[in-house]
Structures are given as structure tokens and as C-alpha cells.
Design brief:
Length: 408
């Protein structure tokens, strides 16, 4: 009819099978013969197998033309020992996926079981969400995947999945899709039992023979059972009289957490600012900050007079409230909104900081901290934080290849 727009045919072409050289170009040459226009395309590779989907339109909407296209794609697939489907896709333009509310659900398992994956998928569906894509982030030493979910508000999704976090046997982080996910540009870390494997005050105490006594107080403080300031002053008092040369010995004992250097180097390579805020001591954190080239460093300072530790602290104590204040201060100095900050720690004195950050992560934390933190990591590899940020292992490979313990 004169003046009417020409009808078009809209189809979804799906190809499955073992990946082959130049498979994408070869498929689209087949489609080009029918003057196809690409509306959307996606290719995913899992080991040696691929899923390649193309949402296309063709200028002819008659059944004969569609049949010829189906036959051509079928013959092409058979010649390459692939499976192909061509199906009508009416209505696919009504609500493009990139215009819907979308969220990322990062899942880290060690291992990631089928039961866990089933539970997460069922919860997403039960909340009204649609899983658009599942992408791999890492296969070793942990398994990490990313669910792209549409159709459900991110806050509702976070609340629903967080409520079942203790049941699924995996760590979860839920964030809005879009550029803001990668825009988190300041990462602040606790030091003891987070960046490093040790509790520094316990190492000092071992040199004066009261290691067990101090360790018991430290553990109770990290569980939130003791006031942090009071417990810290009591523990530091037990160090009175130690020769200042012990500082160098403690530095030599400190062990980075597995994956710590990879995490720091990868974040720095991607343009993040990275710092530490610690209830420990500047005498050790300054050493770490120098070797890791950190942007920020805050901790308590042991008083040393006449070549000996006095058993007192100098200046204000870095406690639970101070950690949150320092995160806010460093974000302001960096020009980074708090919504684009990340904090990670393990103890009760980290909770204010974790809940102030855009993403707060409890790392192998005490139960009270795991229950109150927005996200958790329960694997022994600190670089798993990258996966919660949506950064795949491939982007960390260069940094990881250079990972060594801090030189002593």
C-alpha cells in the first residue's frame, strides 16, 4: 500500500557448539546474503564451547524468505558440526534490556556447588527477576561468576539475597548495573587479619613473653566483646620495656594475606586509590604502605623513649568510629563520593567503616561482623575482592604473575 512502511522480519539466530576460527564472521556472511540488520548480538565462550546469538531483522517478511534464511543457517551449521536455531522474535524491541532496571550479582564459591547456583537462581526468579546472562569471573583458586539480572529493583534484590546469604554456601555482592559499578575508586583496608595474616600486637607480645594473654584479649575485642580503646591500652601496657629493635623483628614476621599483592597491584593498575586504616601500629603499617605504594595510611603510634617501648600510645586512637571518619576524609581528599568507595575488614572495630562505604566487605570475619556487613568474603584469598567488584581474573593476571611476599 503506497505510503506504508515496508514490513520486516525479526528473528533470533542462536548457534551452539565447539568454537572454531572465524566462526562469527562466517555466520554473519550467511546473514549478509539476506540483507540482515543487526539489532543485538552476544557471544559467550565456556572453555572450548560457544553460544552465539544474533537478534536480526531482514527486509522481507514473507514465509518463503524466512524459510530460505533458516535453511541457509542450518546448512552452514551442519557443515561446521554446530547446532543452530532460527526463531521469530516478535516483541523483542518493546523493552530493550539496557533500558530496564538491571543489577549484577557477583557470586564467589570455594567451591561453587550446583545447589548454591540453583538456590540463587530460584531466589532471583522468585523476586521477579530475569537472569539475562551469567558470565565467568574466575575459575581458580575460587569459582566466581556474575549474574546480570533485570526486572527487579537492586535494593529489593540485595535484601532478598542477603537474607539467604548464610544458607547458600557462597559469598554474594549485589550492585546496580552500569558505569557506577566500575567507578569505585577508593579502597580502604584493615591491616591485621585482612591485608596481613597476623595480629601485629600479638607478634610484639610474643617478644615479651605474654603472647597468649594478649592474643586472648585481641580475639575478644575483635568479636566485639570488649571496648576497643580500653582493650588496646591494656594490651599496649603489657609491652612496656620492650627494646625498640623489636619493631624490625616484627616487621620481618609479618606475612601478607594470599592474594593481597595481586589485589593492590590490580587496583592500582586500574586507577584506584588504595589505603589502610588500622587499629594496629604506624611502626608496621608505614612499612607496608611504603612497600605497597599505598595512597593512605592511618594507625596508632607506639610511644618509644630511650630506645624502649613505654607501654603507651601517642595521639588519638584509631578505633571503630575513627575508621569510618578516616574513610570519609580520604574519600573527600580523593574527590570520590562515598558511594564509590570500598572497605574491607574482619573485626567489630571495622563495622562502622564497612557500613559507611559504598561496598563494605567482611573478610573471613567474626560472626558478629559477618551478620552486620553488607557483603562477605569467606575464602582465604584477598584478591577475591576483585570479583565482587566485577573485575575478572584475566585483568589481574599481569599483577598476579609478579606476586611475591613483601621484601624484608
Amino acid at each position: 500500500m503506497p505510503g506504508c512502511a515496508a514490513r520486516t522480519s525479526t528473528m533470533l539466530v542462536s548457534v551452539f557448539g565447539r568454537d572454531q576460527p572465524e566462526i562469527t564472521g562466517s555466520l554473519f556472511r550467511q546473514l549478509a546474503a539476506f540483507d540482515a540488520t543487526v539489532v543485538d548480538v552476544e557471544k559467550m565462550r565456556t572453555r572450548d564451547y560457544i553460544t552465539l546469538c544474533a537478534h536480526i531483522t531482514t527486509p522481507k517478511a514473507d514465509g518463503y524468505a524466512e524459510g530460505r534464511l533458516r535453511a541457509a543457517v542450518h546448512d552452514w551449521a551442519v557443515s561446521r558440526e554446530l547446532h543452530a536455531e532460527v526463531t521469530p522474535s516478535h516483541g523483542m524491541d518493546d523493552e530493550p534490556s539496557y533500558e530496564r532496571q538491571r543489577s549484577h550479582v557477583a557470586v564467589v564459591g570455594h567451591p561453587l556447588s550446583a545447589r548454591t547456583t540453583a538456590m540463587i537462581s530460584a531466589k532471583i526468579t522468585g523476586l521477579g527477576g530475569t537472569i539475562e546472562r551469567i558470565s565467568p569471573l574466575a575459575r581458580r583458586p575460587v569459582t566466581a561468576v556474575d549474574f546480570l539480572v533485570s526486572g527487579v529493583d537492586t535494593k529489593l534484590l540485595r535484601a532478598g539475597l542477603s537474607a539467604m546469604a548464610g544458607e547458600v554456601g557462597a559469598d554474594l555482592a549485589i550492585s546496580e548495573a552500569g558505569l557506577s559499578r566500575r567507578a569505585r575508586r577508593l579502597v580502604m583496608m584493615d591491616v591485621d587479619s585482612t591485608l596481613i595474616q597476623d595480629e601485629v600486637i600479638d607478634l610484639f607480645a610474643q617478644h615479651i613473653g605474654c603472647g597468649q594473654q594478649v592474643a586472648a584479649i585481641t580475639d575478644a575485642a575483635m568479636r566485639g566483646e570488649l571496648d576497643f580503646q580500653e582493650s588496646l591500652r591494656a594490651r599496649v601496657a603489657l609491652l612496656a620495656g620492650l627494646d625498640a629493635s623489636v619493631v624490625d623483628k616484627v616487621r620481618a614476621q609479618v606475612r601478607l594475606t594470599p592474594g593481597a599483592l595481586t589485589l593492590v597491584r590490580t587496583l592500582q593498575r586500574l586507577g584506584y586509590r588504595v589505603g589502610v586504616v588500622s587499629g594496629g601500629f604506624m611502626q608496621v603499617t608505614s612499612y607496608l604502605a611504603q612497600h605497597l605504594n599505598l595512597d593512605y595510611n592511618a594507625a596508632n603510634t607506639l610511644e618509644i623513649q630511650g630506645g624502649r617501648i613505654t607501654g603507651r600510645l601517642v595521639g588519638d586512637i584509631v578505633d571503630r568510629a575513627a575508621k569510618a571518619r578516616l574513610l570519609t576524609q580520604y574519600a573527600r581528599e580523593s574527590g570520590v563520593p562515598l558511594a564509590q568507595t570500598v572497605a574491607i575488614g574482619d573485626g567489630a572495630n571495622d563495622l562502622d567503616m564497612l557500613n559507611t562505604a559504598g561496598l563494605g566487605v567482611a573478610f573471613n570475619a567474626k560472626p558478629i561482623v559477618r551478620a552486620a556487613a553488607p557483603a562477605t568474603l569467606s575464602v582465604p584469598f584477598l584478591d577475591s575482592l576483585l570479583y565482587l567488584l566485577g573485575i575478572p581474573r584475566a585483568e589481574a593476571e599481569v599483577a598476579q604473575s609478579h606476586e611475591v611476599l613483601v621484601a624484608h
